[in-house]
Design goal:
The protein is of the alpha/beta class. It has a six-stranded parallel beta sheet. Bound molecules: the ligand Nc1nc2c(c(=O)[nH]1)N[C@@H](CN(C=O)c1ccc(C(=O)N[C@@H](CCC(=O)O)C(=O)O)cc1)CN2. The site of ligand LMY7XDAE has 21 residues, from helix 2, strand 4, helix 6 and helix 10. The site of the ligand Nc1nc2c(c(=O)[nH]1)N[C@@H](CN(C=O)c1ccc(C(=O)N[C@@H](CCC(=O)O)C(=O)O)cc1)CN2 has 21 residues, from helix 2, strand 4, helix 6 and helix 10.
């Protein structure tokens, strides 16, 4: 079994990006600037935006964290997005999800300027992705593709089973794995809560990508020998013995599934850190496009 070490690969990617940023500085160019909008004080979201800001510092990007109270109205958030769209200093920005219930997430995602949409969630970018056009690919699926590529995992003609059809992971992942090229050229089954015979389908998969958010859902007896296992589940489970009072658990029973798998991502340290690294890659792309458009 080979571990798909997202922590290591994400550090490699950050080092590569830092080199590009240094080149920009040497040419006297402005460095990329990412803004992150956080509405409310959900603990996990605070951790994730904190990691995004820290990652920006590490590679030499500028960053701006916009914190808004959990009582923020939809119009207040849309006004802030308009400001960020119009701010020439900001190359790309994200609105951390999930949003509080009084805000319509779809309206918010539609309001983001597609050229600054480094999350790749705007329908324009999502559509371009589905049509194989150059665009911002959502960071988590993008990170999974990068891991498969860097570990030279063969995806051509393989049966990939994606578990979960969220707009952030499952849906884009299913499109990307079926695309022409590599990683891709896979035959994809997208499964969800209404899928019949899901265990039978999973047992036929060469590659399983689980984005369900149910701790230890995927057991060893459900997967075939030598399957590639990608665990996107990140659930916080109370554990008083830990300094933070919780531990992070994936969808996969790692201890037993790893004995059967050819490749597997750990949780933590797998797909999560890759999400941050690929957001930086998208921001670098946004900066380059922004710079070229100004010429
Ligand atoms: N606007 C967005 N919102 C959300 C996204 C997103 O891509 N854009 N994805 C997730 C959360 N997410 C990034 O925002 C994210 C999740 C997990 C990690 C990560 O590094 N996890 C660590 C564990 C960290 C911990 O909780 O202590 C790991 O797996 O090793 C990074 C980013 C939903 N919202």
């Amino acid at each position: 079994m080979e571990l798909l070490d997202g922590k290591k690969v994400s550090n490699d990617i950050k080092d590569e990006i830092a080199v590009e940023v240094q080149k920009m500085k040497d040419r006297g160019e402005k460095v990329p600037h990412l803004a992150a909008v956080l509405v409310g004080n959900d603990g996990a979201s605070l951790t994730y935006v904190g990691s995004k800001v820290k990652a920006c510092e590490r590679v030499g990007f500028e960053s701006t964290l916009v914190k808004m109270p959990s009582t923020t109205s939809e119009i207040e958030l849309l006004t802030k997005i308009k400001e960020l769209n119009e701010d020439d200093n900001i190359d790309g920005f994200i609105v951390q999800l999930p949003l509080p219930p009084q805000i319509d997430t779809q309206k918010v995602l539609l309001a983001v300027d597609p050229d600054k949409d480094v999350d790749g969630f705007h329908p324009m970018n999502f559509g371009k992705m589905a049509l194989d056009m150059s665009t911002f690919i959502p960071a988590t699926p993008f990170g999974i593709l990068e891991l498969l590529e860097r570990y030279d995992v063969d995806t051509k003609g393989k049966h990939t089973v994606v578990i979960g059809r969220s707009h952030i992971v499952g849906r884009p992942m299913s499109i990307l794995m079926g695309r022409k090229g590599w990683p891709g050229n896979s035959t994809v089954t997208l499964t969800h809560s209404h899928t019949k015979n899901i265990t039978q389908i999973i047992s036929q998969a060469d590659i399983v990508i689980s984005a369900l958010g149910v701790p230890n859902f995927l057991k060893a007896e459900m997967v075939k020998d030598d399957a590639v296992i990608i665990d996107v589940g990140i659930t916080r489970v109370t554990d008083e013995t830990r300094p933070k009072g919780y531990k992070i658990v994936g969808d996969v029973d790692f201890e037993n599934v790893s004995k059967k798998a050819s490749h597997i991502t750990p949780v933590p340290g797998g797909v999560g850190p890759m999400t941050i690294a690929m957001l930086l890659k998208n921001t670098l792309l946004a900066r380059e496009r922004h710079h070229n458009n100004k010429k």
